[in-house]
């Protein structure tokens, strides 16, 4: 197997494991795929085809400069004290069109398309968009140092959380 | 008048009256659940609540330049607000007078001239018809040529401190009278920068499956904070604790709902159905605006206005806007879609020229709490939807009885806090942990009053 194919294989495995961890509600496995200083960003939309581009000057749907925010969300989901999580959807992530953009300087940049079907209280909904990742190799493990998620259908029914993105 | 609505039994004022138990002498105030689930009542309230008087349309900063436009709704009616070549604001029904085709398509756009896609009639940014295709070929009567084919303007359009309001009918109160003493509180949102206020890029919207009035209630409802937002409060406490024990900086410095519960807070109801909640924030220094407080006073902003900029507060403008400053400034625009479906549009309001660090903190606080993607607002939305799900037991559960708490503290007219700032609310209620619910009565009494009026009798 060539080096490029080897890398592609590891990238696919990471992205598919992330999707599976969310669908299977293995929240702590999911968290472990991110570096402690990861950036997790879901920008808002400015117009039909333009998202916000500066998280410190414009509104984002979600912006975290490290993993603590994701850990808080996982705690909240598991707490059984949040009305928004009294019932939760079954989710089905499909991650496809995975492209390795560039690699070098210890970082692998990856783009992909995503689609999440959700089913809750006898009602189906879906969310979809694009992912952009920066992945790093830490002690032999490929981890997410940066994840940017574009949510294309951003006028959402009720609310969304990490497992619907 | 011609009433299309029969199913609701709301054909006369008495039929609206039956939806309330309002007996101040015995302390009873209940609202019928039909207000939250009856589609016929919904149609009537579109006409009499939303389309018969002032509603909020937009903030001036959303359409900054000549020929900029913004599309929105007044009740069920599509409206475009735009600036003409000189920059003056106008508002029109967003449809071609020819066949009624929608004209302006973007939420915010720019158009010196807009052409109808159907028969190519053209309109300038002042709403004037500048072309009827092939008119020169003839075939029109002189009457046609003499009558106006301009866009249909709404009867009233006026700004207060950059906030743009509009009304469809001729007969409405003057906007300043309609806003009344809520203007003191609106000023605390409007005067935070010498350069004015702006809506930051990134408008967010979501829908929920429940009645719009639940959103009006929620921001006045202090009683819900410690239960619905228990996880938010605990997360905020966790960040503070981590920071104290050098476990990492608290990057958000969010509003501390626990600290907020043990200090004085209050509510006011005003004429025309507006309501206000206010609190006391023991950690004012965590607000993005804190760094600018000396500048505010130095440039001559009323000292009491500045002081109130650092109180958590919400103004519910009747019927469709909430000025919220709990976690950070937010405008929430309410658009009812049906009796059990509501669209919310959330705008991040900020002082222009804000220092970079303050702007960053404002955004983190905003995203943390608010929107369908935050960690507090979804819990509110879940409760509205559970009310809707619990609300279909039509004959078995008729009355909502959640308007009793605070009755021993509520007074007619101003309390000491209101007197200090020189306002005259209809009712005041304040104290520690009162978590007043009587404030909802002001909203519902105005709703009842509007619903009992024939259209055209706008007030």
Number of helices of chain A: 3
C-alpha Rg of chain A, in Å? 16 Å
End-to-end C-alpha gap of chain B: 18 Å
- Overall 3D shape of chain B: globular
Mean pLDDT of chain A: 95
Shape of chain A: globular
Structural class of chain A: alpha+beta
Number of helices of chain B: 15
Q: Widest sheet of chain A: strand order?
A: 2-1-6-5-4-3
**Beta-strand segment tally of chain B:** 24
The amount of beta strand of chain B, in percent, is 15-25%
Which two chains share the most extensive interface?
A-B, 38 and 44 residues
Tell me the β content of chain A: 35-45%
Order of helices and strands of chain A: HHEEHEEEEE
Radius of gyration of chain B: 23 Å
User: What strand order characterises the main sheet of chain B?
Assistant: 14-20-19-18-17-16-15-24-23
Q: Can you give the helix content of chain B as a percent range?
A: 25-40%
How would you describe this protein?
The complex is a heterodimer of chains A (165) and B (459). Chain A has 165 residues and is α+β, with helices and mostly antiparallel strands. Chain A is built from 3 helices and 7 strands. Chain A has a 6-stranded mixed β-sheet with strand order 2-1-6-5-4-3. Chain A is globular and about 50 Å long. The N and C termini of chain A lie far apart (33 Å). Chain B is α+β, with helices and mostly antiparallel strands. Helices cover 28% and strands 25% of the residues of chain B. Chain B contains 15 helices and 24 strands. Chain B has helices spanning 13-17, 39-50, 142-146, 175-179, 182-190, 212-218, 225-228, 230-244, 257-261, 293-298, 303-309, 356-369, 377-390, 416-421, 439-451, and strands at 20-23, 28-32, 55-59, 68-74, 77-83, 89-93, 108-110, 113-115, 122-124, 129-131, 156-160, 163-167, 197-199, 204-208, 264-269, 275-278, 313-317, 321-325, 329-338, 341-347, 349-351, 399-400, 411-412, 427-432. In chain B, the strands form 6 sheets. Chain B has a 9-stranded antiparallel β-sheet, with helices on both faces. In chain B, strands 6-5-4-7 form a 4-stranded antiparallel β-sheet, with no helix packed on it.
């Amino acid at each position: 197997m060539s080096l490029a194919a080897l890398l592609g294989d590891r990238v696919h495995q990471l992205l598919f494991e992330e999707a599976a961890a969310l669908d299977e509600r293995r929240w702590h496995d999911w968290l472990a795929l991110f570096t402690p200083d990861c950036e997790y960003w879901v920008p808002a939309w400015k117009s039909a085809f333009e998202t916000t581009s500066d998280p410190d000057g414009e509104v984002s749907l979600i912006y975290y400069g490290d993993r603590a925010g994701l850990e808080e969300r996982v705690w909240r989901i598991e707490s059984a004290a949040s009305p928004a999580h009294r019932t939760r959807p079954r989710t089905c992530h499909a991650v496809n069109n995975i492209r390795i953009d560039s690699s070098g300087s210890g970082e692998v940049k990856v783009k992909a398309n995503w689609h999440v079907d959700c089913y809750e209280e006898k009602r189906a909904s879906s969310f979809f968009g694009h992912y952009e990742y920066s992945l790093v190799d830490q002690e032999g493990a490929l981890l997410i140092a940066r994840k940017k998620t574009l949510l294309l259908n951003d006028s959402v029914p009720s609310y969304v959380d990490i497992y619907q993105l | 008048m011609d009433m299309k609505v029969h199913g609701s039994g709301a054909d006369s004022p008495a039929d609206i009256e039956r939806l309330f138990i309002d007996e101040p002498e015995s302390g009873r105030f209940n609202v019928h659940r039909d207000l939250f689930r009856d589609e016929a009542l919904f149609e009537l309230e579109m006409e009499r609540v939303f389309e018969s008087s002032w509603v909020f349309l937009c903030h001036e900063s959303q359409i900054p330049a000549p020929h900029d436009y913004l599309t929105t709704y007044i009740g069920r009616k599509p409206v475009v607000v735009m600036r003409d070549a000189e920059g003056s604001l106008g508002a029109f029904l967003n449809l071609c007078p020819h066949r009624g085709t929608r004209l302006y398509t973007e939420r915010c756009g720019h158009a010196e001239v807009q052409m109808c896609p159907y028969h190519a009639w053209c309109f300038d940014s002042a709403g004037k018809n500048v072309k009827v295709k092939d008119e020169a070929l003839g075939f029109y009567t002189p009457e046609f040529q003499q009558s106006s084919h301009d866009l249909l303007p709404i009867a009233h359009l006026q700004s207060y401190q950059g906030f743009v309001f509009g009304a469809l009918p001729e007969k409405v109160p003057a906007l300043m009278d309609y806003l009344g003493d809520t203007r003191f509180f609106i000023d605390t949102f409007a005067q935070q920068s010498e350069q004015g206020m702006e809506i930051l890029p990134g408008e967010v919207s979501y829908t929920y499956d429940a009645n719009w009035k639940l959103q009006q209630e929620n921001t006045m409802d202090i009683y819900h904070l410690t239960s619905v937002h228990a996880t938010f409060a605990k997360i905020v406490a966790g960040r503070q604790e981590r920071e104290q024990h050098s476990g990492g900086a608290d990057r958000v410095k969010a509003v501390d709902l626990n600290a907020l519960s043990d200090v004085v807070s209050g509510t006011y109801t005003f004429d025309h159905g507006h309501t206000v909640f206010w609190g006391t924030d023991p950690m004012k220094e965590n607000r993005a605006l804190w760094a600018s407080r000396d500048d505010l006073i130095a440039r001559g902003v009323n000292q009491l206005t500045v002081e109130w900029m650092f109180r958590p507060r919400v103004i519910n403008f009747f019927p469709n806007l909430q000025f919220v400053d709990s976690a950070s400034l937010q405008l929430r625009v309410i658009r009812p879609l049906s009796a059990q479906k509501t669209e919310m549009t959330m705008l991040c309001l900020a002082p222009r020229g804000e220092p970079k660090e303050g702007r960053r903190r404002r955004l983190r606080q905003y995203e943390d709490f608010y929107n369908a993607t935050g960690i507090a607002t979804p819990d509110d939305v879940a409760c509205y939807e559970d009310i809707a799900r619990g609300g279909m037991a039509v004959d078995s559960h008729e009355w909502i009885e959640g308007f009793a708490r605070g009755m021993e503290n509520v007074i007619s007219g101003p309390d000491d806090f209101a007197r200090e700032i020189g306002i005259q609310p209809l009712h005041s209620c304040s104290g520690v942990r009162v978590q007043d619910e009587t404030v909802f009565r002001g909203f519902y009494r105005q709703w009842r009053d509007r619903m009992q009026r024939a259209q055209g009798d706008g007030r």
